[in-house]
Amino acid sequence: MPEVKISASLDCANYLNLLHDIRQLEEGKVDMIHIDIMDGNFVPNFAVGTNLLRALRPLTSLFFDVHLMVQNPEPFIPIFAQLGADSITFHAEVTSRLHHLLSLVKKQGKKVGISLNPSTPPAFLEYLLPYLDMVLLMTVDPGFVGQKFVPEVIPKVGQVRAMMEKQGLDLDIEVDGGIGEKTVPLLKEKGANVFVGGTSSIFSGKEGVKEAALRFRRLCEES
Ligand code: DX5
Ligand code: ZN
User: Fold this and answer.
1) pLDDT recorded at residue 63
2) Containing domain of residue 61, as a range?
3) Mutation test of ligand 1: which of 36, 90, 138, 141 has the most ligand atoms closer than 8 Å to its C-beta?
């Protein structure tokens, strides 16, 4: 299985003190910043936009893990690539031209992922896996922080890991939504290795962001 990685959810950070939170994430040794991009259409919400990322990119060398929760990802692929995304993930539910979109991300020299909502069956991925670096399995319906974890995704992680192994692939499986003490061991056991830290862990507010990030890494590594 690939190594454990921590991706801190930007949407859960304190926007009024963002640079402080970013420095705390660096000191807390997270591997990536998980950047949720919303269009008010695929998900009924908005989050960060291009200007914030443009301002942020020169200030940190953390890996930008961009999650496009948008109905029409195609025009956004070059935009986020130029803004300094390191990986770009979009949803299987939004398009009938997935191979085309995957190749667009690859042409930009970026890592590429496909995300599935909790209700989308894993079989969808079978013919896509050889083109991917990562699968992002949503453990909540996308769009809002602090939602209730959907437990049916736990066996789904195992099914996707088995599908990868059958094809001789060792790709990242990222899980996003309600990831914390109760859910990490169950998801890791089934083969998840990239954990999005949001309000259930790094940004719970119970301790400083740095301490929480270090604690979350220990949890994910030792589970
Ligand atoms: C859903 C968001 C959240 C967030 C994590 O669209 O992507 O899942 O990153 O936040 P919590 O941990 O609050 O679910
Ligand atoms: Zn996300």
Assistant:
1) 98
2) 5-222
3) 36
> How many domains in the chain?
1
Counts for the chain of helices (H) and strands (E), in that order: 7, 8
**How far is residue 220's CA from residue 37's CA, in Å, rounded to a whole number?**
25
Q: What pTM, to 2 d.p., does this model score? A: 0.98
Which residue, among 126, 174, 172, 181, has the nearest Cα to 153 in the 3D structure?
A: 174
The minimum-distance atom of ligand 1 relative to the CA of 145 is 13
- Distance CA(98)–CA(79), nearest Å, equals 18
Classify 73 as helix, strand or coil. coil
What is the DSSP track for 26-37? Answer: HHTT-SEEEEEE
Please confirm, yes or no, whether 31 is among the known catalytic residues: no
CA distance to 20, 36, 41, per residue, from 210 (Å): 10, 21, 34
**How far apart (Å, rounded) are the C-alpha atoms in residues 48 and 37?**
6
The predicted-structure confidence for 18-44, as pLDDT tens digits, reads as follows 999 999 999 999 999 999 999 999 999
For residue 146, the domain's CATH number is 3.20.20.70
Quote the Cα angle for 49-119-74, to 5°.
35
| CB-based pocket (< 6 A), ligand 1 | 9, 11-12, 34, 36, 140, 142-147, 176-179, 196, 198-200
Q: How many CA atoms lie within 13 Å of 205's alpha carbon, on the beta-carbon side?
A: 5
For 107-125, what is each residue's pLDDT tens digit?
999 999 999 999 999 999 9
